[in-house]
Q: What sequence folds into this?
């Protein structure tokens, strides 16, 4: 009887672990804060994705791939936006891994995001694969 | 005696299953999480007070 109880308890544990695998935790204050910063910045970055000045990198970052597409006066500002965006993205990947108790997943999460950003980029945006830039 | 041994073996098998689940990177769950965050960052789904005019290039 006691053994049965133990087995039932273990079965429940296995079930909860399987359920936990269905979703990653992304609703922490740290993640929400990073996300809202990125959302606000997107309005400024979007025109530069469209012009091709900024592209979506293969490593889950954004890159200033064609600086000449940005008027000289704005170039420094766009460089700043790209740097801030990349800092937020790095923090986002790290926080998701941490929030799920697996800091070692950071690189996998980065790769997953890299694929999804590129997959979901709008037509006309530049995306990178195998070191090459191409227009969607 | 034998039954206790069986119970122990089953428990060990289940426990190792548990560990396996947690070690491997949950790729499908990560994709879902990524898509939810991308929806919000790029405002692809009008959920929470989206500002349409702020989005025009």
A:
């Amino acid at each position: 009887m006691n053994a049965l109880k133990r087995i039932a308890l273990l079965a429940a544990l296995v079930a909860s672990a399987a359920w936990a695998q269905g979703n990653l935790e992304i609703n922490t204050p740290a993640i929400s804060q990073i996300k809202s910063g990125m959302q606000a910045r997107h309005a400024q970055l979007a025109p530069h994705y469209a012009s091709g000045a900024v592209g979506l990198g293969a490593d889950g970052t954004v890159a200033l791939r064609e600086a000449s597409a940005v008027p000289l006066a704005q170039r420094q500002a766009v460089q700043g936006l790209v740097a801030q965006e990349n800092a937020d993205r790095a923090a986002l990947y790290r926080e998701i891994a941490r929030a799920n108790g697996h800091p070692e997943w950071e690189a996998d999460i980065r790769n997953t995001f890299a694929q999804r950003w590129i997959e979901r980029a709008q037509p006309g945006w530049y995306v990178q694969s195998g070191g090459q830039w191409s227009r969607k | 005696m034998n039954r206790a041994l069986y119970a122990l073996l089953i428990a060990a098998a289940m426990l190792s299953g548990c560990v396996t689940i947690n070690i491997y990177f949950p790729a499908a769950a990560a994709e879902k999480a990524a898509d939810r965050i991308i929806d919000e960052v790029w405002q692809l789904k009008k959920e929470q007070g989206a500002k349409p005019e702020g989005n025009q290039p």
Remarks:
- The interface with chain A takes residues 3-4, 7, 10-11, 14-15, 17-18, 21-22, 25-27, 29-38, 40-44, 54-55, 57 of chain B (CB under 8 Å).
- The radius of gyration of chain B is 23 Å.
- The helical segments of chain B are 2-23, 27-41.
- Confidence is low (pLDDT under 50) at residues 48-57 of chain B.
